[in-house]
C-alpha cells in the first residue's frame, strides 16, 4: 500500500472558540488514536493537505506517516473519519487511526474499471454495483486499489467477487457470489400518447361557436337599447 507523509501540529485545547480560530486560519482540528497511542493526541492539520487526502482517498487506499512538528514522534495511520459542515460542506474535523504494521486491519479499497465492454458497444448497458471492496490484511500487504478489466464483457456477462485477482495474503470480506459489474440488455420504455377523440373535439368547437354567437346577439340587443 502507498505511504504518504503528513506534518501535523499538536494542540492542547478543545474550546469551541479556539477551534473556530483554527478553522479561520485554514487549519482543521483533528485527533490521533489507536495502536501505540495511550491518550488521544489532539492535532491541527492544514486544510489544503486534508482536501488533497480526501480527494486521493476516492482513487486509492494509502497509509499516512504522521509527523508531529517539534517532536520526533511519528505514527503510521489511516484516515478514520471526516466531519463536514452541513451548510458549507467544508471539513470541520479529521480522525486518524494509528495502526501496527504487524497486525491485520480492515480497509475499503477502490475498484478501478479498465476498458470498455464489447457488450456496451453492441448496445448493452454497463452497471457497476461495487465501487470499492472491503479487505483485511497487514497494512503493507493491502493493495492501494483493485483493477478489474471489463473489455471482454458481452451482453449478459457479469464479474463477481470470486472472479477478482486478490493476493493470497489478503482476505476478502464479501460474499464470493456478489456482483461487481454486469452488462445488461437495454430496456425500452413504451411512451403512451393520449389521443383526443374527434367527436369530443368537435363538441368543444361547437360549444365555443355557440358561446360566441350568444355573446354577439347580446351585444346587438344592448346597442338597440
Q: What characterizes the major β-sheet?
A: 6 strands, mixed, barrel
CATH homologous superfamily heading of the largest domain? Ribosomal Protein L25, Chain P
Shape: elongated
Care to count the β-strands?
Answer: 13
Helix content estimate: 10-25%
- Name the CATH architecture of the largest domain: Beta Barrel
Termini separation (Å)?
A: 99 Å
Unreliable residue stretches: 190-196, 198-204, 216-225
What does it look like?
By secondary structure, the chain is α+β, with helices and mostly antiparallel strands. The protein folds into 2 domains: 2-99, Ribosomal Protein L25, Chain P, CATH 2.40.240.10; 106-184, Ribosomal protein L25, C-terminal domain (RNA Polymerase Alpha Subunit, Chain A, domain 2). It is built from 4 helices and 13 strands. It has helices spanning 16-24, 47-57, 118-121, 198-224, and strands at residues 2-10, 27-34, 41-46, 62-68, 74-84, 91-98, 105-114, 125-128, 132-137, 146-149, 158-160, 171-172, 179-184. The strands form 3 sheets. The chain has a 6-stranded mixed beta barrel. The chain has a 4-stranded mixed β-sheet with strand order 10-7-9-12, with no helix packed on it. A 3-stranded antiparallel β-sheet has the order 8-13-11, with no helix packed on it. The protein is elongated and about 60 Å long.
Amino acid at each position: 500500500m502507498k505511504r504518504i507523509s503528513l506534518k501535523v501540529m499538536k494542540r492542547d485545547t478543545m474550546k469551541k472558540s479556539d477551534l473556530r480560530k483554527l478553522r479561520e486560519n485554514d487549519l482543521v482540528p483533528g485527533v490521533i488514536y489507536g495502536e501505540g497511542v495511550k491518550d488521544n493526541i489532539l492535532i491541527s492539520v492544514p486544510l489544503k493537505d486534508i482536501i488533497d487526502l480526501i480527494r486521493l482517498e476516492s482513487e486509492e487506499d494509502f497509509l499516512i506517516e504522521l509527523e508531529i512538528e517539534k517532536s520526533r514522534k511519528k505514527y503510521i495511520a489511516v484516515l478514520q473519519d471526516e466531519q463536514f459542515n452541513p451548510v458549507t460542506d467544508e471539513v470541520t474535523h479529521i480522525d486518524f487511526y494509528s495502526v501496527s504494521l504487524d497486525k491485520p486491519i480492515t480497509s475499503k479499497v477502490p475498484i478501478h474499471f479498465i476498458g470498455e465492454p464489447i457488450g456496451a458497444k453492441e448496445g448493452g448497458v454497463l452497471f457497476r454495483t461495487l465501487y470499492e471492496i472491503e479487505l483485511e490484511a497487514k497494512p503493507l500487504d493491502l493493495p492501494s486499489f483493485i483493477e478489474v478489466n471489463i473489455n471482454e464483457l458481452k451482453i449478459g456477462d457479469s464479474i463477481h467477487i470470486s472472479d477478482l485477482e486478490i493476493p493470497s495474503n489478503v482476505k476478502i470480506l464479501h460474499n464470493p457470489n456478489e456482483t461487481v459489474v454486469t452488462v445488461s440488455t437495454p430496456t425500452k420504455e413504451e411512451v403512451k400518447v393520449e389521443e383526443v377523440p374527434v367527436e369530443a373535439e368537435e363538441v368543444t368547437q361547437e360549444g365555443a361557436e355557440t358561446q360566441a354567437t350568444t355573446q354577439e346577439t347580446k351585444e346587438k340587443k344592448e346597442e338597440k337599447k
